[in-house]
């Protein structure tokens, strides 16, 4: 999923769900999902639902920071299930062109590392 570009959103303005969806180029359903997941609305706004621009910027920044994975140590792989750097199970490491593949020691998920 692409990163949301909030440069068109002004921090001091309030937006309706429809306006926000148009400015960000996403659907209104996505905005409603964000509200369910913690995007704060203006207190007392029922119809139309109003959302402050600063809240949108903070929410998307927090949402994007959760996706980032820290640096992986030399003997670790990126676990595609845990989304963390983990060690591979012994004997599970295989080389495939420019990648090493393995199995996660913690969750048994697939792991990958570029050589």
Task: Provide an overview of this structure.
The radius of gyration is 20 Å and the shape is elongated. Helices cover 28% and strands 21% of the residues. The relative contact order is 0.13. It has two domains: 14-67, Arc Repressor Mutant, subunit A (Orthogonal Bundle); 77-114, no CATH class. The chain has a five-stranded antiparallel sheet, with no helix packed on it. A two-stranded antiparallel ribbon has the order 1-2. It has 115 residues and is α+β, with helices and mostly antiparallel strands. It is built from three helices and seven strands; from the N terminus they run βααβαβββββ.
Shape by Cα distribution: elongated
* Structural class estimated from helices and strands: alpha+beta
Count of helices? 3
* Rg measurement, Å: 20 Å
Key words describing this protein structure:
Arc Repressor Mutant, subunit A, 5-stranded antiparallel sheet, alpha+beta, 115 residues
SSE arrangement:
Elements: E1 14-16, H1 17-24, H2 28-36, E2 50-52, H3 53-67, E3 77-79, E4 85-86, E5 94-96, E6 99-103, E7 110-114
Antiparallel strand pairs: 1-2, 3-4, 3-7, 5-6, 6-7
Helix pairs in contact: 1-2
């Amino acid at each position: 999923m692409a990163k949301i570009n909030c440069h068109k959103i002004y921090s001091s303005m309030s937006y309706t769900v429809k306006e926000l969806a148009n400015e960000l180029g996403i659907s209104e359903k996505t905005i409603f999902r964000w509200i369910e997941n913690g995007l704060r609305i203006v207190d007392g706004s029922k119809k139309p639902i109003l959302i402050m621009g600063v809240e949108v910027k903070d929410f998307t920044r927090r949402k994007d920071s959760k996706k980032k994975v820290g640096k992986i140590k030399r003997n670790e792989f990126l676990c595609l299930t845990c989304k963390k750097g983990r060690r591979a199970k012994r004997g599970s490491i295989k080389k495939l062109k420019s990648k090493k593949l393995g199995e996660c020691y913690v969750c048994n998920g697939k792991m990958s590392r570029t050589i």
